[in-house]
Design goal:
The complex is a heterodimer of chains A (121) and B (174). By secondary structure, chain A is mainly α. Chain A has helices at residues 2-16, 19-30, 35-41, 46-58, 78-120, and strands at residues 33-34, 62-67, 70-75. In chain A, α1 packs antiparallel against α4, α1 (2-16) packs across α5 (78-120) and α3 crosses α4. With 174 residues, chain B is an alpha+beta fold. Chain B has helices at residues 5-9, 36-44, 46-52, 139-147, 157-170; strands at 17-22, 25-32, 61-67, 74-80, 88-98, 102-106, 116-124, 127-135. Classes of the chains: A mainly alpha (121), B alpha+beta (174). Chain A binds chain B through residues 12, 16, 22, 25-30, 61, 75, 78-79, 82-83, 85-91, 93-106, 108-109, 112, and chain B through 14, 16-20, 26, 28, 30, 32-34, 38-39, 41-42, 48, 51-58, 130, 132, 146-147, 149, 151-152, 154, 156, 158, 162, 165, 168-172, 174.
Chain lengths: 121, 174
């Protein structure tokens, strides 16, 4: 599960490392668009924009669907990966807390033991 | 994950698990090498709680830690973080306090969408299994908590990145 989340995050980072691709996501955040729309908006060739959309699609940040002769792009099911990553971060937060709690508990146990000894003496 | 009896026989580093158990429920578990009474005390005495609640690695620190741990009592934790201009406050009410076995509190800083947290302390031989369950009022409330990127308010690089992404994908920042 952790490995899965990491791999997904790596894909996302790679996809997000490019300004055009971030622009495409921003654009699709407002409305779905065809490849032609995107090419026009970003002043790119159809081949060029398709390449970017392909990378976003692989990272599941975008999904595309061909209806007739038009390929429509919209934001992808990243929510799920986001959730996996969030839960892992939540786990890590509690894991760090609990590592500290372990120390506190150990100290309490030691103190109880020495208090017990003192009482007996 | 530690449900098989076998793993309990093998001494290993105690592992923390976290899972979304249902549409509106998160569960975190961990086993401690101490009796339930001791672990419970570390959760309920403010001077002990403040020593572990904010892990050093996150860079935040307690400004104040008030907890009146009894049924109907309230708590208020205030943290500071070098990256945050304002201190962050977390507060709520203890709904149930059963010494040595069970704690239930509300998380009211987020308003209506806050979760109710139940912690149980269950003795397993010389050890104690702690199960912490956050139940949100609705699926939407938990989805929103996740989408906002906040893990109990600790600002970290990931959060900023997520925020950037969310702003972009929502087109809100444009």
């Amino acid at each position: 599960m952790v490995q899965y989340a990491r791999a997904r995050l790596d894909d996302s980072f790679a996809a997000l490392s490019d300004a055009t691709r971030r622009g495409v996501l921003e654009y699709l955040g407002r409305s779905d668009a065809s490849i032609t729309d995107l090419a026009g908006h970003f002043h790119m060739t159809l081949t060029g924009i398709k390449k970017h959309v392909g990378v976003l699609e692989e990272a599941r940040l975008v999904i595309t669907e061909k209806v007739g002769r038009v390929r429509t792009c919209r934001l992808g099911p990243r929510r799920l990966e986001e959730e996996t990553a969030w839960i892992e971060r939540y786990r890590q937060l509690w894991d760090s807390r609990f590592d500290e709690l372990d120390k506190v508990v150990e100290e309490m146990k030691l103190k109880e033991r020495s208090d017990g000894r003192n009482r007996k003496e | 994950m530690d449900a098989t009896g076998k793993s309990e026989l093998v001494p290993e580093k105690n592992r923390t698990t976290a899972e979304r158990k249902s549409e509106r429920e998160l569960v975190v578990t961990r086993t401690f090498d101490a009796p339930a009474r001791v672990v419970f005390e570390a959760w309920t005495r403010p001077e002990l709680l403040r020593r572990w609640w904010v892990p050093k690695s996150c860079g935040a620190s307690f400004i104040s830690c008030e907890a009146d741990v009894r049924t109907g009592g309230t708590y208020r934790f205030v943290f500071g973080h070098p990256a945050a201009e304002q201190p962050m406050a977390f507060f709520g009410k203890y709904v149930e306090v059963t010494p040595g076995s069970r704690l239930v509190w509300t998380n009211d800083e987020g308003g209506e969408g806050g979760a109710v947290t139940t912690v149980t302390f269950e003795e397993r031989g010389p050890r104690t299994l702690v199960v912490m369950q956050d139940v949100y009022p609705s699926k939407e409330a938990l989805d929103n908590a996740i989408a906002s990127g906040s893990t109990s308010g600790f600002g970290e690089a990931f959060e900023q990145l997520d925020e950037l992404f969310l702003t972009r994908s929502a087109g809100a920042g444009a």
